[in-house]
Fold:
Amino acid sequence: MKVKIENSDKSLAAIQKALDEANRGAHAHTFNHASSVVKSAANAEAQMAELGILKGARAGAAAVKVSGVAVFKAYQYSRIATRITMARGSNAWFLIGVETVSIWAKGGTRTTLTLTPEQDEYAVAVLRCRYHVARREQESAAA
Structure:
């Protein structure tokens, strides 16, 4: 499966079909609307922007999101949730996997990104531009 994540009728229908097939009737803690997938893709895009990765360099990244929220620890049973896997193309995110998983009290996860080595290097370089490292007295005296 590879469905472009966008707000077009064709795309939303394909995403909804994939969610319905994966969830098989489960609704309480799952992604059961295509709009949830669109929002997750937007969150992944925002995370990449926050890392300072330019739009043209975002292709090749991947993102995983698990539905569901935390519940009271006294809730001792597992719940059915939906895990979506997305891949970043040259100009958009694509839904490449939908499956059900069991979650416990902790709930789902925030969007987890997997970057290419080049994207990682760039993100680290951008981060290092945002701070300075204080030198210890011993190091400055020796220099």
